[in-house]
Specification:
The protein is mostly helical and 163 residues long. The chain folds into two domains: 59 residues; 96 residues. α6 packs antiparallel against α7, α6 packs parallel to α8 and α7 packs antiparallel against α8. The protein is elongated, with a radius of gyration of 23 Å.
């Protein structure tokens, strides 16, 4: 395999993985054949390493804090979706009031967007739980609890005002 292709394929792996194994892996790829099966294997492994990082050593240990887990997109995106849904709902209530919301025959745009935001969180939270609960259970449970609290905070006005 050419050195340029080996370097490009190594770039598929996360930065921390490359810092630890990158030079050796490039040499290994340069000495291996560049057939379709090898290329597919390297590409799948690179993607897999980004989703499920190597366990053990400095690669896995650095990502086990609550703050680093909260920095994962699958952790903060559901939080942002809940906050956005709550903000939309509260702004709509502040502008039009509860009586207007209850008098409408159709739910309205804000209600539909709220429903999409709330339902759209479920697969993201499930992905987060599947990925992080086995690796860092204590920190992942705290993040999931924060996500559930944000969902409940967004649902509270709907429940208590009967919207």
């Amino acid at each position: 395999m050419s050195p340029v292709l080996a370097r490009l394929l190594t770039r598929l792996y996360p930065r921390r993985w490359r810092e630890r194994y990158g030079d050796e892996y490039e040499v290994l790829l340069e000495t291996s054949p560049s057939d379709p099966l090898t290329l597919a294997n390297v590409i799948c492994s690179g993607i897999g390493e980004r989703i499920f990082p190597t366990k053990g050593g400095a690669v896995e240990q650095a990502s086990r804090t609550f703050r680093s887990l909260l920095g994962q997109p699958s952790a903060f995106v559901p939080l942002a979706m809940s906050v956005t849904a709550l903000a939309m709902l509260l702004c709509d209530l502040a502008i039009y009031g509860v009586a207007h919301e209850l008098a409408q025959t159709d739910e309205g745009t804000v209600a539909h967007l709220w429903q999409i935001l709330m339902a759209g969180q479920l697969p993201i939270v499930a992905f987060f739980a599947i990925k992080w609960l086995p690796r860092a259970p204590k920190q992942a449970i705290a993040v999931v609890a924060l996500q559930v609290a944000a969902v409940l905070a967004s649902m509270a006005p709907v429940y208590f005002l009967g919207l």
